[in-house]
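R.M. (postdoc): so does anyone remember the format we settled on? I'll just put the structure tokens first.
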């Protein structure tokens, strides 16, 4: 079955860390990019980070650059998002999605609706 399953969300105090996982099945990470998006209450879904093993490109939004690190484990077919120095404004449901490249995460907006494979989401809550 082709699917993405996120895990690793939770409640953390400001300044703390969490590591999210996105386990892919039914396809290889070598053939697709995997992007992380987040959606806070009342806000639109936004691209946070992306990894494309095919061309080696990484993407980070300005809001997380320097604090979040994306990586992948080919053997586990899993993408990780290490989130450090978390802030209350990072509170959101985090989703991973499959894409052909990292442009969707970078451009955002209506292009996000074109992605065809999403995980179920994992909630990250950062308390002040």
């Amino acid at each position: 079955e082709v699917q993405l399953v996120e895990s690793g969300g939770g409640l953390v105090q400001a300044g703390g860390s969490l590591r999210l996982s996105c386990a892919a099945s039914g396809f290889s990470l070598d053939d697709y990019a995997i992007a992380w998006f987040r959606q806070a209450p009342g806000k639109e879904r936004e691209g946070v980070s992306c990894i494309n093993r095919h061309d080696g490109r990484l993407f980070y939004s300005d809001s997380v650059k320097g604090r979040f690190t994306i990586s992948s484990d080919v053997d586990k077919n899993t993408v990780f998002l290490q989130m450090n120095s978390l802030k209350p404004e990072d509170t959101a449901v985090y989703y991973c999605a499959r894409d052909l490249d990292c442009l969707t995460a970078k451009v955002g907006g209506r292009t996000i609706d074109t992605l065809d494979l999403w995980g179920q989401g994992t909630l990250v809550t950062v308390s002040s």
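R.M.: ...and that's the designed sequence above, right after the tokens. Also worth knowing: Strands lie at 3-7, 10-13, 18-25, 33-39, 46-52, 57-60, 68-73, 78-83, 92-99, 122-127. Residues 19 and 82 are 4 Å apart (CA to CA).
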